[in-house]
Amino acid sequence: MSLQHDPHDGVLVVDDDSGFRAVVEELLQACGYEVVCAENGAVALELLRSGLRPSIILLDLMMPEINGWEFLALKRREPALADIPVAILSGVDALEAKAATLDVCALLKKPIDLDTLLAVVAKTR
């Protein structure tokens, strides 16, 4: 899916858990969002560098290849990508303490409250 007909309604879900990705994708699609999924930061960066411009990126932190921390650092260095909002979806403990160092629009701890997730995504629409 390219998100080209209305890039402001698109969501990029980056998580190595295929079951979690599928649930989030289904929920967001049922609410009218276009969704593209990536299993790690490397795939997500490839999609973004090839022109994908979602209204928000939902990002897990603990993933193989390029994890969420590395993804955020690399994204920040690229002017075309730097302004895309990112919401962290993670099971990492003590995440709130680390949140100050992250440039993200939201921080949601797994298991995710679906109404909260939808509210975060709706703010970027």
Task: Describe the protein's architecture and organization.
This protein is α/β, with parallel strands linked by helices. The chain contains six helices and five strands; from the N terminus they run βαβαβααβαβα. The protein has a five-stranded parallel β-sheet with strand order 2-1-3-4-5. Strand 1, helix 1 and strand 2 form a beta-alpha-beta unit. Helix 2 runs parallel beside helix 3.
What's a quick, concise take on this entry?
The protein has 125 residues and is α/β, with parallel strands linked by helices. Helix content is 40%, strand content 18%.
Task: Measure the end-to-end span.
Answer: 18 Å
The quaternary organization reads as single chain
Total helix count? 6
- The global form is globular
Radius of gyration: 13 Å
**Helix amount:** 40-55%
Question: Which properties best describe this structure?
Answer:
disordered N terminus, alpha/beta
How are the elements arranged and paired?
Blueprint: E1 10-14, H1 18-30, E2 34-38, H2 41-49, E3 56-59, H3 68-76, H4 79-82, E4 86-90, H5 95-99, E5 106-109, H6 114-123
Parallel strand pairs: 1-2, 1-3, 3-4, 4-5
Helix pairs in contact: 2-3
